[in-house]
Amino acid sequence: MKLKTYIASLLLLVIASSHAQVGIGTTVPDASSILDITSTNSGLLIPRVALTSTSDVTTIASPVTSLLIYNSGFSPNGYYYWNGSVWVQLTTSSNGWLLSGNSGTVPNTNFLGTTDDVDIVFKRFNVRSGFIGNPSIASGNKNTSFGANSLNALGTGIRNTAIGTNVMPSNTTGQLNVAIGDQTMFSNQGGSTNTAIGVGALYSNSSGNSNVAIGRNALTSANASNNTAIGFGALRQNATGNYNVAIGNQAAYNETGSNKLYIEMSTVTSPVAGSDSSVNNALIYGEFDNRIVRTNGTIQIGNPATTGFSLPTIRGNAGQVLQTNGAGSTSWTNDNSTMSVTRTNLSANQALTNTGWQKINFNTVVFDLNSEFSAGRFTATKAGYYEVNAGFHTDNQSNLQFYSIGVYKNGALYQQTSANHTNLGPVPRNITCIVSLGVGDYIEIYAENYQAGVNIDSYFGKTFFEVKQIR
After folding, report:
1. Which among 190, 144, 191, 137 has a CA at the least distance from the CA of 163?
2. Could you say which residues of the chain have pLDDT below 50?
3. Global model pTM greater than 0.90
């Protein structure tokens, strides 16, 4: 009986073959098919093969393209076909990501990605727009990019991160770079260990290394190394300078040299952005190679309104020292330790003529800090303000005559004290004044007398000549 069935089936196949179609379970195979299998209670059983991987060509030797099997080996199981290179699983709504989205996913189970050691590439309009590279510390490229036309697909550089459109599209051998923002590090080819964050940051750099640029157009013109620019347009015009640091809006915008430090906040946007960015406008400016740093503002130590103080912004005069007012302000003043202080006396009584003004010939120096007293006069060696204090006593006089003491500056009367005598005892006269002296100006003390027989008493407590610099 079975033999008859096989013969009948064979005849049906032969008959069907004469019409170029094969029918199983039908005598009228569909004209559009080469094989038409019809059944109401059975299915087609595809060969079940335990593949070891998507690249397995051992279990089935030399598989032909489009060969279909049910993989019962590696996970996930399912229908696979050979595409000429690897086994590809037939996607279904239950195991594929749909264009309209998926539901019922389990975060620890469902994912986008690979289950083998192969890099992942995303494209937009057939242009690479994302890349996740091998993270292996020993052998992986460790590159990551996300954004249209970012991170050159043909580059050999490793450990780069590019996020944004047109980020490092020309990179060839550059490595260990981090670039975030549209057209960041756009021209980079071999530059390495750079960090750029902001649209256009490090745009022109092709081979410079170890730069940090944070901010729109920070270091956008540079192809140099070891620069740090933080702020919009910071170090924007610097093309070849190295070892610069600029912090602030448009800081060091026009700086083109090397080894510079700028901390500033430029506010000019027209007609030329950053035109107020300069060595004299920066709040802080420095030169690393010359080991200098300066501020173009006021330095405060603590809060001058409470317990701190501020420093002056002018240089002062030669020899001056810093002095506080005790209320938060400081200023330059003359150093008291080197200011002039002089006192002189007479070594013997001095006889006066009765012809009017005549110089008192002080000739005994008690102290003269800066050696400015000689030949009866004080000659200033430093410009400043001086206090003059002088006095004399005469011997006993019995008259009502007019007597005076005077301060002479450069040979001319500057100030005097005068009075008539009271007809009994010595004549005392004292004078105190403040005078401005330049270097080389001199002071002398004069007495005015019109009475014969008058002598100046040389006692040091009665007759003296003092000069004290006060500023």
Report:
1. 144
2. 1-7, 10-11, 14-18
3. no
